[in-house]
Amino acid sequence: MVATPEIVTDRLILKPLRSEDAQQIQRKFPRWEIVRYLISTVPWPFPEGAAQHYVDNVSLAASKKGTGWFWSLRPKEEEYELIGVISLMDIPDNNRGFWLVPEWQGKGLMAEACEAVNEFWFETLNKEVLRAPKAADNQRSKNLSMRNGMRLVRTEKAQYVSGELDSELWEITREMWRGRQD
């Protein structure tokens, strides 16, 4: 079993998610611009205590079982400030998920975080393929997948917080990822 490590990138510190992070998540996460393209199991409206439940009973539980790796995203210059979350999960067709508060979007930070966790997935965990589902309407996430060298492998309908939407499954293999690193 591989523990979730702290990862430092050029502009971010990815810290293993802790129970104490739930307070910041509860304040920052429940915004329509963040949740509308997330899977429908995310409760909406987001109730008080939902972040604590998620961190303690979903994230940390999966981490303890060795089936999930969860990080808070923090800018290097403001290490105390949680600005998003990124995760890797050993679940078929759903290996990576993330969210970032809107005021930090459009700066390439999520691309930086994705590259870092992709490296962990392929090189440390030695996985063959990383798959990430997303709402087809989530253009920013699709653009990130394309820039990261992922390919679209399937489309279908799925339930999201905003209702039933067209959904896409994107993937990158270890071979494809390593080819981009050369």
Please give a quick description of this structure:
By secondary structure, the protein is an alpha+beta fold. The chain has six helices and eight strands; from the N terminus they run ββαααβββαβαββα.
What do these coordinates show?
The protein is an alpha+beta fold. It is built from six helices and eight strands; from the N terminus they run ββαααβββαβαββα. A five-stranded antiparallel β-sheet has the order 1-2-3-4-5, with helices on both faces. Strands 6-8-7 form a three-stranded antiparallel β-sheet. A hairpin with an 8-residue loop joins strand 3 and strand 4 (84-89). The longest helix is centred in the first third of the chain and has 16 residues, at 50-65. It is globular and about 45 Å long. The mean pLDDT is 97.
